[in-house]
Amino acid sequence: MSTADVVRLALHIAALLLVVLGISLDLDDRGGALWSDTWTWAGFATLMALLQGAAMLPRTTLSGAGWTLGAVGAGGLLLFWTLLMLPMISTNMAFLVTLGTACATAAVLLSPDRRL
After folding, report:
1. 114 vs 68: CA distance, rounded Å
2. Alpha helices in 25-65 (DSSP H)
3. Contact status, residue 29 vs residue 103, Cβ threshold 8 Å
4. Is the pLDDT of residue 13 over 80?
5. Is residue 60 situated within a structural domain?
6. Is-contact 108 70, C-beta < 8 A?
7. Nearest Cα to 111, choosing from 42, 64, 62, 63?
8. Is the per-residue pLDDT at 32 higher than 70?
9. What pTM was computed for the model?
């Protein structure tokens, strides 16, 4: 594994962990995590955080659609961040999700299979 592959793998894993921790933990003493407030959006964010990892799949897997799926996952996280996290940007939850979204976006953009 090259250094670039290790960096991308670390970014994908960090994105998943930061997003899931951000929406799961009650970091701001608001009386609950995002799962108890809006479980559909929390599920969407978790699904997108998992999907962004598809950009790590080799080109032969999924008939070369791995990067596209990863880009959809990162785009979904950007949508989630814009609609739900940006209005509450001063919270600890939003900070973790912001870091996770940035890691996902960077990992997808650094992929050697990138189509942009």
Report:
1. 8
2. 34-37, 39-51
3. no
4. yes
5. yes
6. yes
7. 64
8. no
9. 0.89
Provide the Cα torsion 37, 39, 44, 47; round to 10°. 120
Q: Which own/partner pairs from 35-42 qualify as long-range (CB within 8 Å, at least 24 positions apart)?
A: 38/84, 41/80, 41/84
What are the tokens at 63?
Answer: 């008939």
List helix spans (H) across the chain.
3-24, 34-37, 39-51, 66-80, 92-109
In a domain, 71, yes or no: yes
By residue range, what is the domain housing residue 77? 3-109
Query: Measured between alpha carbons, how far is 116 from 100 in angstroms, rounded to an integer?
Result: 22
Structure tokens at 64: 């070369």
- Using the predicted structure, report yes or no on whether residue 34 has a pLDDT greater than 90: no
Q: Looking at the domain assignment, is residue 114 inside a domain?
A: no
* Model confidence band, residue 111 (pLDDT cutoffs 50, 70, 90): confident
Total count of domains within the chain: 1
Is 81 within 8 Å of 102 (Cβ atoms)? no
